[in-house]
Write a structure and sequence with these properties.
The complex is a heterodimer. Chain A has seven helices and 14 strands. Chain A is of the alpha/beta class. In chain A, helix 3 runs parallel beside helix 4. Chain B has one domain: Glutaconate Coenzyme A-transferase, CATH 3.40.1080. The chains are: A alpha/beta, B alpha/beta.
Chain lengths: 263, 338
């Protein structure tokens, strides 16, 4: 049962994000919608998923509710292992994180993300037009998680040819072996979920490629909202609207007070 | 060999950090004192201050309030992810730079996750009032760890690309063992660390519940460490479980018993976030970021910081039922799976 008109962009992102995650894998979870999507995966097809949070918690059951911070007490209750930031990132650097789940303010066609500043870099670095929070752990996750899943709200100002600043490296300039040559270990962006559809990164060019469209969107409408030329898979599939059970889980069980999924 | 002239140590150089520790009284003595005394004694103008906690978890809020009342100039703040502690210091600078000023910040993240961006950070950065050096959470954590290990740097696998490495003093070299690129991040040895912990004894042995964040590394890297604690416990309690000690006494210079010392942020096992107050504080700073209107921010500081003598007086401004509700929420967070 679905109710197409009755869900938000954030809700379909959460459902899409959760479906990309795999059971019995370790997922390094960034703040915000990735936390909601990870809980959703755990409550549906991936009950044995193992979340890791950068403040140090490994494998919490998340049974005391949605954390509102990646260092939240709720990430520690019932966890298997808790140290601090160095331990979490050292594990990731070692290769323990199958997935990294991060967001950003801007993205380019190779999945590079900006969460640092708007303005000119480097000339305007010390006096940015808009100062954003900064990397946090996102650039470390982007470097060292084996595969990363990105979440970015989709409009022309956010899907850009050239970013103001590259905080979290994706496939860099798309050249062959760019990440490995730069010294990084993880394979880089695996999927991107926007408010309009789902994308992968084409194997050869490493360019963002539309693979699934959300209800109401087409390849053309998505291209029109994108500041660079998208690749489009030959078999783009329609992504179904969230089911009423999925919406119930988000609204009643996972984020009942609308901390990250706004009402 | 001399230090290369291009390397600017913004806290202590590794050699200075070593000397600071050699010269320090490392005896196991009673280090309890007032917050006023600790801040006046261990923090100086121009210091590099290592800030503990993570975003709004276990940040040293009481210490920052006392620093604001004392007044300091030209501080460098070093942290991975900060929220309210950095906000309180920055807000004081916004109101009167001759009374309180930050010269530079070395950071990975300054914002509030679900509570939004920091209007204080935006005000200072977008007006070009502070020097910025961006790193990542792991970079800053590894920098403190290098400092804590007595090493000048640690090799890391980030930042190796993008704009973070050119925003800071990372060196990217060819690894002498693998031939691949590797990043070297320089040690951070702050002049002083400011840290809030769950429990401590009078000697400064500290127990941290929930995330350690990077507090043990910051304390061990700094020349001096000021610790506030939710609970001041007998040494015997600590000595029964020495492996639970997160920060050992020789790294600590001052111990102050300050219940609610990380409030209105959260502290594992004690209280959850007071989101209403965090939003209100930001609401007071936002007009100044938008249009330069300082009235609301000034009123906040006059009421909550300059208008009180101690952090205890600040806490007394919150209704008891609100404090108890935040404690109850945290108790629920800790209940664990049924």
């Amino acid at each position: 049962m679905t109710d197409q008109a009755n869900y938000t962009a954030q809700e379909i992102i959460v459902v899409a994000g959760s479906k990309i995650l795999e059971n019995r894998k370790i997922v390094f979870v960034g703040t915000g919608l990735p936390m909601v999507a990870t809980l959703m995966a755990k409550l549906t097809h991936a009950p044995e998923i193992i979340p890791v949070f950068e403040a140090g918690a490994v494998g919490p059951p998340l049974s005391v509710g949605l954390p509102i911070s990646v260092g939240d007490s709720k990430t520690f209750t019932g966890a298997s292992y808790v140290k601090g930031l160095n331990a979490a990132f050292e594990m990731t650097q070692r290769g323990y994180a199958d997935f990294g789940f991060i967001g950003g303010a801007e993205v380019d066609m190779f999945g590079n993300l900006n969460s640092t500043m708007m303005g000119d870099y480097p000339a305007g670095y010390q006096k940015p037009a808009v100062r954003l929070p900064g990397s946090g752990g996102a650039s470390d996750m982007a470097a060292s998680c084996e595969r990363t899943i990105l979440i970015v709200p989709h409009d022309k100002r956010k899907f850009k040819e050239k970013l103001s600043y590259v905080t979290s490296p994706g496939h860099l300039d798309g050249s062959p072996n760019a990440r490995y040559t730069a010294g990084m270990q993880g394979k880089g962006p695996y999927r991107l979920i926007s408010t309009r559809g789902i994308f992968d990164f084409e194997e050869k060019t490493k360019r963002m490629r539309l693979i699934s469209v959300f209800p109401g969107e087409t390849a053309a409408s998505i291209q029109a909202a994108t500041g660079f030329e998208l690749l489009v898979a030959s078999d783009v599939s329609p992504f179904p609207p969230p089911t009423s059970e999925e919406l119930r889980l988000i609204r009643e069980e996972i984020d009942p007070t609308g901390v990250f999924v706004k009402k | 060999m001399e230090t290369p002239t291009h390397m600017q140590w913004t806290g202590l150089s590794p050699d200075e950090a070593r000397k600071a520790l050699v010269d320090k009284d490392k005896s196991m003595r009673d280090k309890t004192m007032t917050l006023k005394e600790a801040v006046a004694r261990f923090i100086k103008d121009g210091d590099n201050v290592g800030v503990g906690g993570f975003v709004n978890i276990r940040q040293p809020i009481a210490i920052t309030h006392e620093m604001v009342r004392h007044g300091f100039k030209n501080l460098t703040l070093s942290f991975q992810s900060a929220g309210l502690a950095a906000d309180y210091l920055a807000g004081a600078m916004m109101l009167d730079e001759s009374r309180f000023s930050i010269k530079r910040i070395e950071l990975a993240y300054w914002a509030h996750e679900s509570f939004g961006l920091s209007p204080m950070f935006r005000y200072l950065a977008e007006r070009g009032k502070i020097e910025l050096e961006d790193w990542s959470n792991y970079n800053m954590s590894a920098r403190f760890k290098a400092g804590a290990m007595g090493l000048p740097f640690l090799p890391t696998r980030s930042p190796l690309a993008g704009d973070v490495p050119s925003s800071n003093r990372t060196k990217i070299i060819d690894c002498p063992f693998t031939g691949r690129k590797i990043a070297l991040v320089p040690a951070s040895n702050p002049n002083v660390a400011i840290i809030h912990v769950s429990a401590a004894d009078k000697y400064g042995n500290c127990i941290i519940r929930g995330t350690d964040a990077t507090c043990p590394e910051i304390a061990m890297a700094a020349a001096h460490t000021i610790v506030t604690c939710e609970q001041l416990v007998d040494h015997e309690v600590i000595a029964n479980h020495p492996k639970d000690v997160g920060i050992p006494f020789p790294a600590v210079d001052a111990v102050i018993h300050v219940p609610f010392g990380a409030y209105p942020g959260a502290c594992r096992g004690h209280y959850y976030f007071n989101g209403d107050h965090i939003r209100w504080f930001h609401g007071a700073a936002a007009p100044m970021h938008r249009s330069g209107d300082s009235n609301a921010l000034k009123a906040y500081y006059d009421q909550y910081i300059y208008g009180v003598e101690t952090f205890g007086d600040f806490i007394q401004k919150f209704p008891a039922d609100k404090l108890m509700a935040d404690q109850a929420a945290e108790a629920q967070n800790c209940e664990g799976p049924a």
